[in-house]
Amino acid sequence: MARCWIRFSVAALLVLSAGTVRAQTADRLYILNCGEGVAGDISRWSPGVDVGKSKDFVDNCYLIRHGQDWLLWDTGVADAVAAMPNGLVPSDPRAVLWRRPKTLASQLEALGVSPGDIKFVAISHTHPDHIGNVELFPDAMLIVQKAEYDWPNADGTPRFKPGHPVTKVEGDYDIFGDGSVTVLSTPGHTPGHESLLVKLPKTGPVILSGDAAHFQANFDNRRVPSANFDHDETVASMQKLANLMAKDHAQLWINHDAVQRETLKMAPAYYD
Ligand SMILES: [Zn+2]
Q1: Strand locations in 17-114 (E)
Q2: I need a labelling partner for 269 at 20 to 30 A (CA). Which of 11, 91, 136, 147 fits?
Q3: Ligand 1 centre distance from Cα of residue 125 (Å)
């Protein structure tokens, strides 16, 4: 009887400890400068609010090391824009005029990371300020929602080079299989928009927004840009992130928020 009880207790303990195993973490995260710009009329992103006001934008890429692997989240404004003296001037003056103070390639080089070292390139969505340098990494595995991958350009052409290796995701996706870096499906801005949850050993959990929201005030007030693909999906996606933030005590790092970027460390400094 005693023996039986011990056996039972050991089994129960094993079950308990398996249930409380903590998710692994990524090792470090660098924020790279992937563009700086000025929007002509910020109310495109907040209908009815701040009409006619211009606003600074930034554009970040995020380089994540996990063991021996490198993952790049978004690729920013095309490196070719760095050579344009007036920046990339939009056809609609209310949109963003992008500049590229530094290329992505030069920032990777400064960190001693070559494009061939990047194993995964995960993409929040297919707007040009996020996919400008995908083909700098022709051998990297793209991670993108199927709904985004299958969404044709306005002229019917595909958004990615058809030969590029790709993992087409449907919904949330645990990239390394250990809970450290998780793609979060957050549709609305585009059909297959996604965000990224990164767990770091000291910094804790961080959600990289993509364009689920462009600025803190837009997130806080659930403002939906007029050009978004689906209004209600956008609001639901913001709520999904807010719920995760509450549950995991996660920070939200908003890609285009210039005010927030001032408070964060840029590469070569990093978060661990
Ligand atoms: Zn976008």
Answers
A1: 28-39, 55-66, 69-73, 96-99
A2: 136
A3: 7
Task: Quote the CA–CA distance of 160 and 27 in Å, as a whole number.
Answer: 29
Tokens 């090391």, residue?
Answer: 65
pLDDT tens for 105-129 read 999 999 999 999 999 999 999 999 9
Q: How far is the CA of 261 from the centre of ligand 1 (A)?
A: 18
* Type of residue found at 6: I
Q: Does the pLDDT at position 19 exceed 80?
A: no
189 CA to centre of ligand 1 in angstroms = 7
Q: How far is the CA of 17 from the centre of ligand 1 (A)?
A: 42
Mean pLDDT along residues 53-79:
98
